[in-house]
């Protein structure tokens, strides 16, 4: 975990050094504007993979085996960064409980993965507008490559204008230095937010500017520089783990059951009745009636059934518990 507040890496403190140069980062002599348009062949993801030098000479099955062998290393890479990821989850839990939000900032593949993760949280966990994704190039860049926008440092800063003190801003960049992402993170820092960087460059100097750097050592790709492959897979695993653990810690699940989905149609109602029967051991009719009394809110129905209280009392207990099912039940039992 790299702390910026109060230390030499705090990019807000004493910005002008001797001779008027800007302090606080590796772009100091360029007024903090990154020159990322030049590919750095020393980046871990840009090197040539010695295990795939001859990949274009191999039969189809062997090409697939080489790719699969490389992919098999990714889960070990993610395992190495779990302590840092846990710190990031805890920051986000505190922020959301205090009324803050989590912001993802990314470009290209990284931005698309972030947008996918944020989009899946409302239907899965019933949490709306609290985890938001900002993608370089906007909606158009989600469905097609708009490569030039990732170099826009100022656009990243503009997109971070809605970040508030106490929010958590997470930049996602395989290289660890994408100008759009760094611009957003620096603006978020200035706004008083907590910041994190998810990269596939463990030694990026920009990791020193954030609260938490999750540096994934995925190494060179099967095809040099094609970071949609191992780097993208590792990033997706980290985002899955981050957002799922965040929702669990916020009490948006009960056991391993998805209990924060509202019954908006017949199919969902049937699924949620089944979840309630599994969670409570009660019959389907009792659970269906409780779900109806709860207005289709599964958590209210669950707390009502397990706590043996009316739906209105269950609703109050959940509100007093930041929406957490187990905490709401503990409140009822200790009342």
Describe what is shown at a glance.
It is built from 13 helices and 5 strands.
Classify the beta-strand content into a percent band. 5-15%
Overall form: globular
| CATH architecture grouping of the largest domain | 3-Layer(aba) Sandwich
CATH topology of the largest domain: Rossmann fold
User: What is the number of independent domains?
Assistant: 2
Broad structural category: alpha/beta
| SS summary, helix count | 13
Q: Determine the CATH superfamily of the largest domain.
A: Glucose-6-phosphate isomerase like protein, domain 1
Describe this structure in words.
The chain has about 325 residues and is an alpha/beta fold. The protein folds into 2 domains: about 20-250, Glucose-6-phosphate isomerase like protein, domain 1 (Rossmann fold, 3-Layer(aba) Sandwich); about 265-335, Orthogonal Bundle (Helicase, Ruva Protein, domain 3). It contains 13 helices and 5 strands. Strands 2-1-3-4-5 form a 5-stranded parallel β-sheet, with helices on both faces. It is globular and about 65 Å long. It comes from Actinomadura rudentiformis. GO terms for molecular function: carbohydrate derivative binding; carbon-oxygen lyase activity; ether hydrolase activity. Belongs to the GCKR-like family. MurNAc-6-P etherase subfamily. Homodimer. This is N-acetylmuramic acid 6-phosphate etherase.
């Amino acid at each position: 975990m790299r702390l910026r507040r109060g230390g030499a890496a705090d990019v807000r403190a004493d910005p002008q050094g001797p001779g008027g140069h800007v302090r606080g980062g590796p772009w100091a002599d360029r007024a903090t504007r990154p020159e990322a348009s030049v590919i750095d062949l020393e980046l871990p993801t840009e090197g040539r993979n010695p295990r795939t030098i001859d990949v274009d000479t191999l039969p189809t099955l062997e090409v697939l085996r080489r790719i699969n062998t490389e992919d098999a290393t990714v889960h070990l890479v993610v395992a190495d960064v779990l302590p840092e990821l846990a710190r990031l989850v805890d920051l986000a839990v505190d922020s959301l409980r205090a009324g803050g939000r989590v912001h993802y900032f990314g470009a290209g593949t990284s931005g698309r993965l972030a947008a996918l993760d944020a989009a899946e949280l409302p239907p899965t966990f019933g949490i709306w507008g609290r985890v938001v994704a900002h993608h370089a190039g906007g909606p158009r860049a989600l469905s097609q490559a708009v490569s030039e926008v990732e170099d826009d440092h100022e656009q990243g800063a503009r997109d971070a204008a809605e970040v508030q003190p106490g929010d958590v801003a997470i930049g996602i960049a395989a290289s660890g230095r994408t100008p759009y992402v760094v611009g957003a993170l620096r603006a978020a820092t200035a706004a008083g937010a907590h910041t994190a960087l998810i990269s596939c460059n463990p030694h990026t100097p920009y990791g020193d500017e954030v609260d938490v750097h999750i540096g994934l050592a995925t190494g060179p790709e099967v095809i040099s520089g094609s970071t949609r492959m191992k780097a993208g897979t590792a990033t997706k695993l980290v985002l899955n783990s981050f957002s799922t653990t965040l929702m669990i810690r916020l009490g948006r699940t009960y056991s391993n059951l998805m209990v924060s989905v509202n019954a908006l149609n017949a199919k969902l109602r049937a699924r949620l009745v089944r979840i309630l029967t599994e969670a409570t051991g009660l019959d389907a009719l009792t659970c269906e009636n409780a779900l109806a009394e709860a207005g289709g809110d599964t958590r209210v129905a669950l707390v009502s059934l397990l706590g043996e209280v009316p739906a209105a009392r269950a609703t109050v207990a959940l509100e007093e518990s930041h929406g957490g099912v187990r905490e709401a039940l503990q409140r009822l039992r200790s009342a």
